[in-house]
Amino acid sequence: MGKPSLPETDVQGGPHVPVLLEEVLSALSPVAGRRVVDGTFGAGGYSRALLEAGAHVIGIDRDPSVAPHVEALTQAFPDRFRFVAGTFSELDTLVADAGPVDAVVLDIGVSSMQLDQAERGFSFMRDGPLDMRMSRSGTSAADLVNGLEAEDLANLLYAYGEERKSRRIAQFIVAARQDTPIATTLELARIIEKAIGRKPGDAHPATRSFQALRIAVNSEFDQLVEGLFAAERLLVEGGRLAVVSFHSLEDRIVKRFFDPDKGGPTASRHLPQVEAAPRRWHPVAKAVKSGAAELARNPRARSAVLRSAVRTGEAARPIDLKGLGVPQIRGAA
Protein backbone atom coordinates (compact mmCIF):
# COMPACT_ATOMS: atom_id res chain seq x y z
CA MET A 1 0.00 0.00 0.00
CA GLY A 2 1.21 3.49 -0.75
CA LYS A 3 3.77 2.92 -3.50
CA PRO A 4 2.74 4.56 -6.77
CA SER A 5 2.43 2.52 -9.95
CA LEU A 6 0.55 2.67 -13.20
CA PRO A 7 -3.24 2.56 -13.07
CA GLU A 8 -4.68 -0.90 -13.66
CA THR A 9 -6.25 0.17 -16.92
CA ASP A 10 -5.57 3.20 -19.07
CA VAL A 11 -8.71 3.78 -21.13
CA GLN A 12 -6.71 5.59 -23.79
CA GLY A 13 -3.71 3.30 -23.97
CA GLY A 14 -5.16 -0.10 -23.25
CA PRO A 15 -5.02 -2.45 -20.29
CA HIS A 16 -2.32 -2.63 -17.66
CA VAL A 17 -1.99 -6.16 -16.29
CA PRO A 18 -3.74 -6.47 -12.88
CA VAL A 19 -2.24 -8.39 -9.97
CA LEU A 20 -1.86 -12.19 -10.35
CA LEU A 21 -3.76 -12.12 -13.64
CA GLU A 22 -2.45 -15.37 -15.11
CA GLU A 23 -2.90 -17.13 -11.81
CA VAL A 24 -6.51 -15.93 -11.54
CA LEU A 25 -7.28 -17.09 -15.08
CA SER A 26 -5.73 -20.47 -14.28
CA ALA A 27 -7.79 -20.77 -11.08
CA LEU A 28 -11.01 -20.09 -13.00
CA SER A 29 -10.12 -22.31 -15.96
CA PRO A 30 -11.75 -23.26 -18.25
CA VAL A 31 -13.03 -19.77 -19.06
CA ALA A 32 -14.27 -19.79 -22.67
CA GLY A 33 -18.07 -19.85 -22.87
CA ARG A 34 -18.47 -19.61 -19.10
CA ARG A 35 -20.48 -16.96 -17.25
CA VAL A 36 -18.20 -15.12 -14.82
CA VAL A 37 -18.97 -12.41 -12.26
CA ASP A 38 -16.21 -9.88 -11.60
CA GLY A 39 -17.46 -8.65 -8.25
CA THR A 40 -14.84 -5.91 -7.87
CA PHE A 41 -14.69 -4.45 -11.39
CA GLY A 42 -12.42 -1.49 -10.63
CA ALA A 43 -10.52 -0.52 -13.76
CA GLY A 44 -11.69 -3.66 -15.54
CA GLY A 45 -8.40 -5.52 -15.78
CA TYR A 46 -9.74 -8.95 -14.83
CA SER A 47 -12.96 -8.44 -16.80
CA ARG A 48 -11.05 -7.58 -19.97
CA ALA A 49 -8.80 -10.63 -19.66
CA LEU A 50 -11.78 -12.90 -19.06
CA LEU A 51 -13.62 -11.44 -22.04
CA GLU A 52 -10.57 -11.86 -24.26
CA ALA A 53 -10.45 -15.51 -23.13
CA GLY A 54 -14.05 -15.98 -24.36
CA ALA A 55 -16.08 -15.64 -21.17
CA HIS A 56 -19.37 -13.84 -20.64
CA VAL A 57 -18.71 -11.32 -17.87
CA ILE A 58 -20.90 -9.36 -15.46
CA GLY A 59 -18.97 -6.59 -13.69
CA ILE A 60 -20.01 -5.16 -10.33
CA ASP A 61 -18.69 -2.07 -8.56
CA ARG A 62 -19.97 0.62 -6.19
CA ASP A 63 -17.50 3.29 -7.34
CA PRO A 64 -19.04 5.73 -9.86
CA SER A 65 -15.59 6.56 -11.26
CA VAL A 66 -15.39 3.20 -13.05
CA ALA A 67 -17.79 4.50 -15.74
CA PRO A 68 -15.15 5.13 -18.46
CA HIS A 69 -13.81 1.59 -18.07
CA VAL A 70 -17.32 0.14 -18.18
CA GLU A 71 -17.99 2.05 -21.39
CA ALA A 72 -14.76 0.81 -22.97
CA LEU A 73 -15.62 -2.85 -22.36
CA THR A 74 -19.26 -2.37 -23.33
CA GLN A 75 -18.16 -1.07 -26.72
CA ALA A 76 -15.51 -3.74 -27.19
CA PHE A 77 -17.66 -6.71 -26.07
CA PRO A 78 -21.32 -5.63 -26.43
CA ASP A 79 -22.67 -9.18 -26.53
CA ARG A 80 -20.65 -10.65 -23.66
CA PHE A 81 -20.24 -7.89 -21.09
CA ARG A 82 -22.65 -6.02 -18.87
CA PHE A 83 -22.23 -3.96 -15.74
CA VAL A 84 -24.32 -3.70 -12.57
CA ALA A 85 -23.76 -0.92 -10.04
CA GLY A 86 -23.63 -2.18 -6.47
CA THR A 87 -21.50 -3.93 -3.87
CA PHE A 88 -20.10 -7.42 -4.26
CA SER A 89 -21.68 -8.32 -0.91
CA GLU A 90 -24.95 -8.44 -2.86
CA LEU A 91 -23.62 -10.18 -5.93
CA ASP A 92 -26.06 -13.08 -5.88
CA THR A 93 -29.00 -10.65 -5.78
CA LEU A 94 -27.52 -8.29 -8.38
CA VAL A 95 -27.06 -11.05 -10.98
CA ALA A 96 -30.11 -13.14 -10.06
CA ASP A 97 -31.44 -12.76 -13.61
CA ALA A 98 -28.24 -13.95 -15.27
CA GLY A 99 -28.84 -17.67 -15.11
CA PRO A 100 -26.26 -20.19 -13.84
CA VAL A 101 -22.92 -18.59 -12.91
CA ASP A 102 -19.73 -20.62 -13.37
CA ALA A 103 -17.15 -18.44 -11.63
CA VAL A 104 -16.64 -15.39 -9.43
CA VAL A 105 -13.49 -13.31 -9.00
CA LEU A 106 -12.97 -10.82 -6.16
CA ASP A 107 -10.04 -8.42 -5.77
CA ILE A 108 -10.33 -7.12 -2.21
CA GLY A 109 -9.39 -3.66 -1.02
CA VAL A 110 -8.41 -0.41 -2.69
CA SER A 111 -7.55 -0.44 -6.41
CA SER A 112 -4.58 1.13 -8.15
CA MET A 113 -7.03 3.48 -9.85
CA GLN A 114 -8.30 4.74 -6.50
CA LEU A 115 -4.81 5.12 -5.02
CA ASP A 116 -3.68 7.08 -8.06
CA GLN A 117 -6.47 9.66 -7.73
CA ALA A 118 -5.37 12.13 -5.07
CA GLU A 119 -8.87 13.57 -4.77
CA ARG A 120 -10.18 10.24 -3.47
CA GLY A 121 -8.05 10.51 -0.32
CA PHE A 122 -6.86 6.89 -0.18
CA SER A 123 -3.12 7.47 -0.34
CA PHE A 124 -0.74 9.15 2.11
CA MET A 125 1.67 9.64 -0.81
CA ARG A 126 -0.57 12.25 -2.47
CA ASP A 127 -2.22 15.30 -0.97
CA GLY A 128 -5.98 15.18 -1.15
CA PRO A 129 -9.13 15.44 0.95
CA LEU A 130 -9.33 12.87 3.75
CA ASP A 131 -12.14 10.90 2.14
CA MET A 132 -11.56 7.18 1.30
CA ARG A 133 -15.20 6.47 0.39
CA MET A 134 -15.41 3.96 -2.46
CA SER A 135 -19.07 4.77 -3.07
CA ARG A 136 -18.50 8.53 -2.58
CA SER A 137 -21.30 8.61 0.00
CA GLY A 138 -21.66 8.08 3.73
CA THR A 139 -19.12 8.54 6.52
CA SER A 140 -15.67 9.69 5.39
CA ALA A 141 -12.24 9.15 6.92
CA ALA A 142 -12.29 12.80 7.99
CA ASP A 143 -15.51 12.17 9.91
CA LEU A 144 -13.85 9.35 11.85
CA VAL A 145 -10.55 11.16 12.45
CA ASN A 146 -12.24 14.30 13.68
CA GLY A 147 -15.25 12.79 15.43
CA LEU A 148 -14.16 9.68 17.34
CA GLU A 149 -13.01 9.84 20.95
CA ALA A 150 -9.35 8.95 21.48
CA GLU A 151 -10.10 5.48 22.87
CA ASP A 152 -12.50 4.58 20.06
CA LEU A 153 -10.05 5.82 17.44
CA ALA A 154 -7.19 3.86 19.02
CA ASN A 155 -9.28 0.68 19.13
CA LEU A 156 -10.18 1.11 15.45
CA LEU A 157 -6.55 1.57 14.39
CA TYR A 158 -5.50 -1.47 16.39
CA ALA A 159 -8.28 -3.82 15.27
CA TYR A 160 -8.34 -2.96 11.57
CA GLY A 161 -4.73 -1.90 11.02
CA GLU A 162 -2.89 -4.03 13.59
CA GLU A 163 -1.22 -0.77 14.64
CA ARG A 164 0.60 -1.44 17.91
CA LYS A 165 1.12 2.26 18.60
CA SER A 166 -2.54 3.10 18.07
CA ARG A 167 -3.03 4.84 21.40
CA ARG A 168 -0.14 7.24 20.87
CA ILE A 169 -1.33 7.98 17.33
CA ALA A 170 -4.87 8.63 18.57
CA GLN A 171 -3.57 11.00 21.24
CA PHE A 172 -1.62 13.00 18.65
CA ILE A 173 -4.63 13.14 16.32
CA VAL A 174 -6.96 14.37 19.06
CA ALA A 175 -4.45 17.03 20.10
CA ALA A 176 -3.91 18.18 16.50
CA ARG A 177 -7.62 18.56 15.74
CA GLN A 178 -8.34 20.80 18.74
CA ASP A 179 -7.82 24.04 16.81
CA THR A 180 -8.68 22.99 13.25
CA PRO A 181 -10.17 19.74 11.88
CA ILE A 182 -7.75 17.44 10.06
CA ALA A 183 -8.76 17.77 6.41
CA THR A 184 -6.12 16.25 4.13
CA THR A 185 -4.22 13.01 3.68
CA LEU A 186 -0.76 14.54 3.99
CA GLU A 187 -1.78 16.41 7.11
CA LEU A 188 -2.86 13.18 8.78
CA ALA A 189 0.25 11.35 7.53
CA ARG A 190 2.50 14.03 9.04
CA ILE A 191 0.71 13.79 12.39
CA ILE A 192 1.16 10.01 12.46
CA GLU A 193 4.83 10.29 11.50
CA LYS A 194 5.34 12.84 14.27
CA ALA A 195 3.64 10.51 16.73
CA ILE A 196 5.66 7.35 16.08
CA GLY A 197 8.66 8.42 14.00
CA ARG A 198 10.09 6.82 10.93
CA LYS A 199 13.08 4.52 10.52
CA PRO A 200 14.99 4.37 7.21
CA GLY A 201 13.88 1.42 5.11
CA ASP A 202 10.65 0.82 7.03
CA ALA A 203 7.18 1.19 5.55
CA HIS A 204 5.62 4.62 5.92
CA PRO A 205 4.39 5.00 9.52
CA ALA A 206 0.90 5.92 8.29
CA THR A 207 0.44 2.67 6.34
CA ARG A 208 -1.47 0.73 8.99
CA SER A 209 -3.57 3.67 10.13
CA PHE A 210 -4.68 4.51 6.59
CA GLN A 211 -5.53 0.84 6.04
CA ALA A 212 -7.63 0.79 9.20
CA LEU A 213 -9.52 3.97 8.31
CA ARG A 214 -10.23 2.77 4.77
CA ILE A 215 -11.54 -0.56 6.03
CA ALA A 216 -13.78 1.17 8.56
CA VAL A 217 -15.11 3.77 6.10
CA ASN A 218 -16.06 1.12 3.55
CA SER A 219 -17.10 -1.67 5.95
CA GLU A 220 -14.66 -3.88 4.10
CA PHE A 221 -14.66 -6.86 6.45
CA ASP A 222 -18.46 -6.99 6.44
CA GLN A 223 -18.42 -6.66 2.66
CA LEU A 224 -15.87 -9.47 2.33
CA VAL A 225 -17.74 -11.92 4.55
CA GLU A 226 -21.10 -11.18 2.94
CA GLY A 227 -19.54 -11.39 -0.52
CA LEU A 228 -17.99 -14.78 0.16
CA PHE A 229 -21.29 -16.24 1.36
CA ALA A 230 -23.10 -14.58 -1.57
CA ALA A 231 -20.72 -16.35 -3.96
CA GLU A 232 -21.40 -19.63 -2.14
CA ARG A 233 -25.14 -19.14 -2.69
CA LEU A 234 -24.69 -18.11 -6.31
CA LEU A 235 -22.25 -20.59 -7.79
CA VAL A 236 -23.36 -23.85 -9.34
CA GLU A 237 -21.75 -27.14 -8.39
CA GLY A 238 -18.30 -27.10 -9.93
CA GLY A 239 -18.28 -23.30 -9.97
CA ARG A 240 -15.02 -21.59 -9.09
CA LEU A 241 -14.28 -18.71 -6.74
CA ALA A 242 -10.97 -16.82 -6.85
CA VAL A 243 -10.18 -14.17 -4.23
CA VAL A 244 -7.15 -11.86 -4.24
CA SER A 245 -6.48 -10.14 -0.92
CA PHE A 246 -3.77 -7.72 0.13
CA HIS A 247 -3.24 -8.09 3.85
CA SER A 248 -3.21 -10.84 6.43
CA LEU A 249 -6.54 -9.99 8.04
CA GLU A 250 -8.45 -10.42 4.76
CA ASP A 251 -6.46 -13.49 3.78
CA ARG A 252 -7.22 -15.18 7.11
CA ILE A 253 -10.96 -14.65 6.56
CA VAL A 254 -10.80 -16.13 3.04
CA LYS A 255 -8.67 -19.08 4.17
CA ARG A 256 -11.05 -20.01 6.97
CA PHE A 257 -14.13 -19.48 4.82
CA PHE A 258 -12.90 -22.05 2.31
CA ASP A 259 -11.75 -24.46 5.01
CA PRO A 260 -13.65 -23.91 8.30
CA ASP A 261 -11.53 -26.53 10.03
CA LYS A 262 -8.60 -24.09 9.86
CA GLY A 263 -10.35 -21.75 12.26
CA GLY A 264 -11.80 -24.28 14.67
CA PRO A 265 -10.37 -25.53 17.96
CA THR A 266 -7.95 -28.44 17.89
CA ALA A 267 -9.80 -31.67 18.59
CA SER A 268 -8.76 -33.61 21.67
CA ARG A 269 -8.05 -37.31 21.30
CA HIS A 270 -9.68 -37.79 24.73
CA LEU A 271 -13.08 -36.46 23.58
CA PRO A 272 -15.64 -38.07 21.26
CA GLN A 273 -14.95 -37.24 17.63
CA VAL A 274 -17.33 -34.70 16.11
CA GLU A 275 -18.56 -35.48 12.64
CA ALA A 276 -17.06 -33.06 10.13
CA ALA A 277 -19.43 -30.59 8.48
CA PRO A 278 -20.12 -31.13 4.77
CA ARG A 279 -17.58 -29.41 2.54
CA ARG A 280 -18.95 -26.52 0.46
CA TRP A 281 -15.59 -26.01 -1.28
CA HIS A 282 -13.36 -28.77 -2.60
CA PRO A 283 -10.66 -28.86 -3.72
CA VAL A 284 -9.18 -25.77 -2.08
CA ALA A 285 -6.05 -24.68 -3.89
CA LYS A 286 -2.85 -23.66 -2.14
CA ALA A 287 -2.32 -19.94 -1.68
CA VAL A 288 -0.50 -18.24 -4.57
CA LYS A 289 1.70 -15.14 -4.37
CA SER A 290 3.31 -12.92 -6.99
CA GLY A 291 6.59 -13.97 -8.56
CA ALA A 292 9.74 -11.92 -9.01
CA ALA A 293 8.77 -10.64 -12.47
CA GLU A 294 5.43 -9.29 -11.28
CA LEU A 295 6.97 -7.71 -8.20
CA ALA A 296 9.50 -5.92 -10.37
CA ARG A 297 6.70 -4.59 -12.57
CA ASN A 298 4.30 -3.67 -9.78
CA PRO A 299 5.54 -3.26 -6.17
CA ARG A 300 1.93 -3.21 -4.94
CA ALA A 301 1.72 -6.91 -5.74
CA ARG A 302 4.13 -7.78 -2.93
CA SER A 303 1.34 -8.44 -0.42
CA ALA A 304 -1.18 -10.01 -2.81
CA VAL A 305 -2.42 -13.54 -2.05
CA LEU A 306 -4.73 -15.57 -4.29
CA ARG A 307 -6.93 -18.28 -2.81
CA SER A 308 -9.37 -20.29 -4.88
CA ALA A 309 -11.67 -23.27 -4.57
CA VAL A 310 -14.39 -25.24 -6.37
CA ARG A 311 -18.00 -25.31 -5.19
CA THR A 312 -19.44 -28.65 -4.17
CA GLY A 313 -23.09 -29.62 -4.38
CA GLU A 314 -23.75 -29.09 -0.65
CA ALA A 315 -26.34 -26.47 0.29
CA ALA A 316 -24.98 -22.99 1.01
CA ARG A 317 -24.45 -22.01 4.64
CA PRO A 318 -26.14 -19.09 6.40
CA ILE A 319 -23.75 -16.22 7.09
CA ASP A 320 -21.72 -17.05 10.19
CA LEU A 321 -18.71 -15.09 11.49
CA LYS A 322 -17.69 -17.86 13.89
CA GLY A 323 -14.22 -19.17 13.18
CA LEU A 324 -13.47 -16.70 10.37
CA GLY A 325 -11.21 -14.51 12.46
CA VAL A 326 -13.01 -11.27 11.60
CA PRO A 327 -11.37 -8.46 13.62
CA GLN A 328 -13.60 -6.91 16.25
CA ILE A 329 -13.19 -3.39 17.61
CA ARG A 330 -12.91 -3.53 21.39
CA GLY A 331 -15.90 -2.01 23.08
CA ALA A 332 -18.08 -2.16 19.95
CA ALA A 333 -21.50 -3.75 20.23
UniProtKB/TrEMBL annotation:
Alphabetized InterPro entries for the sequence: RsmH, SAM-dep_MeTrfase_MraW_recog, SAM-dependent_MTases_sf
Keywords for this protein: Cytoplasm, Methyltransferase, rRNA processing, S-adenosyl-L-methionine, Transferase
Any GO BP: methylation
Transmembrane segments: none
A Pfam family it matches: Methyltransf_5
Residues annotated as binding S-adenosyl-L-methionine: 44-46, 61, 88, 107, 114
Keyword rRNA processing: yes
EC number: 2.1.1.199
Main location, first listed in the record: cytoplasm
UniProt xrefs under Gene3D superfamilies: Putative methyltransferase TM0872, insert domain, Vaccinia Virus protein VP39
Protein role: Specifically methylates the N4 position of cytidine in position 1402 (C1402) of 16S rRNA.
Family to which this protein belongs: Belongs to the methyltransferase superfamily. RsmH family.
This protein's name: Ribosomal RNA small subunit methyltransferase H
